What we know:
Number of helices: 9
Shape: elongated
Distance between the termini: 58 Å
Number of strands: 7
Strand content: 15-25%
Radius of gyration: 27 Å
Largest sheet: 7 strands, mixed
Helix content: 40-55%
CATH architecture of the domain at 61-194: 3-Layer(aba) Sandwich
Amino acid sequence: MAKKRIHHYFIPLEQNNFRPHLLRPHFLSFFGLAVIFAKFFITAALFISYPSPTAFAEITSRQIIELANQSRQEAGLPPLSENFILDRAAMQKAQDMLNRDYFNHEDPDGNTPWYWLKDNGYLYSYAGENLAMNFVKSESVHQAWMNSESHRANILNPNYQEIGIGVLEGELQGKKTTVLVQFFGTTFAQKQGVDYSFASSLEQGTPLSTELTEGTAQPQFKGKEVVVTLKSEPEHSLLSKFAAYTKEFYWVILALLSLLLLINILVKIKVQHKSVIVQTILVLVLIITMLSIQTHFLENISQTLKII
């Protein structure tokens, strides 16, 4: 009995008038409305949370600073103060990565992160940088950094007194993405008596910071990229997961209807209902349209968060 019922839903038979139940108008209407509703729901949710790239950058920057200071407070360290020169340097670094298509501490010309600080007149005695891309929620980025020894060492470095954040969305390495630059620093005005000559003991796997000491060597940066797959996200991160699930839903319905249409045509090639074929093709076109149209700038962000 169950087998016959499945056949009625999937295969054109004389008993169902050669119209599989899943390709009948009421089921096709259901599939079409479900696809439209899913698109509307995720678009509305994203716009309510982040109405524009500017709002996304402002919200993320504020939250990243709050999360960093919360972790420092838990470790018994003083909070970091936002420095607008560091903010500007971070934004310039983020824009440069998007413009020149790289994700690294060093730019294609070999300039280290400290180039952006010096270029903005930030005379530091201590400085550090954390980078992230492919994210929607700031909590996910901060947790990934805290799970990385070198990035956590930056956030909890007692020598740092200031912080600056740059957040941009754009295209990197051929894909839509979000980029975050986090600069830390302490100026000479805040730490008196430090020689302006500096050196660095930065090596791969060591804390991402540059301490100014006696000497003349330029800092050498050998940051190691860490790829973090977002298996679970705290708090409101269900938003990004739902966006990914919506796409998977589209692909499942697209594959199911394509298979049903193919079966319908091939099993009884001499008995065809043109209306069934036309209506199914229209729903398939609708699904493909929903997949191809981006209604919000965060909709197509990869679910693989990268930090370096």
